[in-house]
Design brief:
By secondary structure, the chain is α/β, with parallel strands linked by helices. The chain has 17 helices and 16 strands. The strands form six sheets. It has a five-stranded mixed sheet with strand order 2-8-7-6-5, sandwiched between helices. It has a three-stranded antiparallel sheet with strand order 9-14-11. The longest helix has 20 residues, at about 315-335. The chain binds pyridoxal-5'-phosphate.
Length: about 475
């Protein structure tokens, strides 16, 4: 395919469709009001373009649906498990495959076996469920991403890289307390920033030197391999599949949420080179997930995954996939809407603090933008700012370091005309951004408040208020 064209060619044709939910402005305003201006509380029928997450939202292919029909739902030793095991083995090169119902179940099993209170687990950045599963054991999840990875303006081609000097120092100092070392590919933080092959190899060498097992969090291994092919010296002639395989070769195993590059709506697994932990993992799997040949999934899910892993590595698909975030990122940038640069593999982050400087952090500029994107365009996005991370200390509001809005793109779901349509709408929004109003929190639950918090438009002259102790405005 030519890279010079403006149009993305979706490398599929559509044989099953689902209507978009189109609503009037008034209808969306009602949805917003009823949801307390929290998009997690808007029913999906109210949403036209759902960019809340790329997790489990993939459109499956005819081949995947076909495979599901011939699944063998035997409790033990099903033929579908054998297909799944062979597919994971072929893609990763790992010998031992343990299915789980999704990524966090894999995390809980592996950490439950290996991590003890007081331990430390280094990575570039831990995903939030990964961190939570480490911390609930009483261990520490340590982020060692390169400084460029924390700088929204840096255009480093591999912003997901781990800082190898820091890692070496860290391993030397804490060796006895590090049960495993990790890397997240792509690094979810920043929208799926890639990790270079050189960096992965460097991290593997350090872990090996200190005799620390190396486990990849491989949710987006195919997108990461495509970035390596496109951006890393000496890689442009390689097949993406062989790059992915070589990445897996550097590690001792992986955990994977198949809801990402597994191209399925549910599923996950642990895969390992060596047998050491396998018996214990399988015994624990039986306790909570199910027998080792289905691990909390239906056989038809295993079938879909066995097909999806290869579809995720298809070169035409990956060219289209990485073009989506880039197209939206470039489009927003051209409209003067600031984003975290460069766009990652699965999402674009808008810098709401820079875009809406007239809204103070205490009035949640990220959430204000989330609300405005929905009100105008029916877009559902996710605030990653002071609603999620802000807090109150001695009655003073402490904002998050950044006020970001994430647009995450489901795989194979929306087309370029959808994105063009939205960019037209965003152009008008950029012109009228002064009309965007801040919000006031009227209800805040004690933890994970972004899921259920309630808001109302801020009084134009509102001074900072104490909102934490407020009662819910409505009871639903
Ligand atoms: C989604 C994700 C997980 C957790 O997987 P679930 O399937 O949501 O439980 C872990 N790590 C990364 C990097 C992820 O993106």
């Amino acid at each position: 395919m030519e890279l010079t064209r403006r149009s993305i060619i979706e490398p599929f044709k559509i044989k099953m469709v689902e209507p978009l939910h189109l609503h009037s402005l008034e209808a969306r305003e009602k949805f917003l009001k009823d949801a307390g201006y929290n998009l997690f509380l808007v029913p999906s029928q109210g949403v036209t373009f759902d960019f809340l997450t790329d997790s489990g939202t993939t459109a499956m292919s005819a081949n995947q649906w076909g495979a599901m029909m011939v699944a063998d739902e035997s409790y033990a030793g099903s033929r579908s498990f054998q297909k799944f095991e062979a597919a994971v083995g072929e893609v990763t090169g790992y010998n031992y495959v343990i299915p789980t119902h999704q990524g966090r179940a894999a995390e809980r099993l592996l950490f439950g076996l290996l991590v003890k209170p007081g331990d430390q687990v280094p990575s570039n950045n831990h995903f939030d469920t990964t961190r939570a599963n480490i911390e609930q054991i009483g261990a520490q999840a340590v982020d060692l991403v390169i400084p460029e990875g924390r700088d929204p303006k840096s255009r480093h081609p591999f912003k997901g890289n781990i800082d190898l000097e820091l890692l070496e120092e860290f391993c030397k100092k804490h060796r006895a307390r590090i049960p495993i070392g990790m890397l997240t590919i792509t690094n979810n933080t920043g929208g799926g920033q890639p990790v270079s092959f050189e960096n992965i190899r460097g991290a593997a060498a350090i872990y090996r030197k200190y005799n620390i097992p190396f486990i990849l969090d491989a949710c987006r291994f195919a997108e990461n391999a495509a970035f390596i092919r496109n951006r890393e010296r000496g890689m442009s002639e390689r097949s993406i599949r062989s790059i992915a395989r070589e990445v897996f070769d550097t590690a001792d195993g992986c955990m994977m949420s198949a809801k990402k590059d597994g191209m399925v709506n549910i599923g996950g697994f642990i895969a390992l080179k060596k047998q050491d932990w396998v018996t214990d993992l399988r015994n624990n799997l039986i306790l909570t997930e199910g027998f080792p040949t289905y691990g909390g999934l239906a056989a038809r899910d295993l079938e879909a995954l066995a097909v999806g892993l290869f579809e995720a590595l298809n070169e035409d698909y990956l060219e289209y996939r990485l073009a989506v975030a880039k197209y939206m990122g470039d489009g927003l940038t051209d409209l003067g809407i600031p984003i975290v640069q460069p766009p990652g593999g699965h999402a674009v982050y808008i810098d709401a603090k820079a875009f809406l400087p007239h809204i103070p952090p205490s009035q949640f500029p990220g959430q204000a933008l989330v609300v405005e994107l929905y009100r105008r365009e029916g877009v559902r996005s996710c605030e990653i700012g002071s609603v999620m991370f802000g807090r109150t200390e001695s009655e003073k509001f402490v904002p998050a370091a950044m006020e970001l809005v994430r647009l995450a793109f489901p795989r194979r779901v929306y087309t370029q005309s959808h994105f063009d349509y939205l960019l037209e709408g965003f152009e008008l929004l950029a012109k009228e951004k002064q009309k965007c109003r801040g919000l006031q929190m009227t209800y805040s639950p004690p933890f994970l408040r972004h899921f259920t918090a309630q808001f109302k438009p801020a009084n134009r002259r509102a001074v900072e208020r104490k909102w934490v102790a407020c009662a819910p405005e409505k009871s639903n």
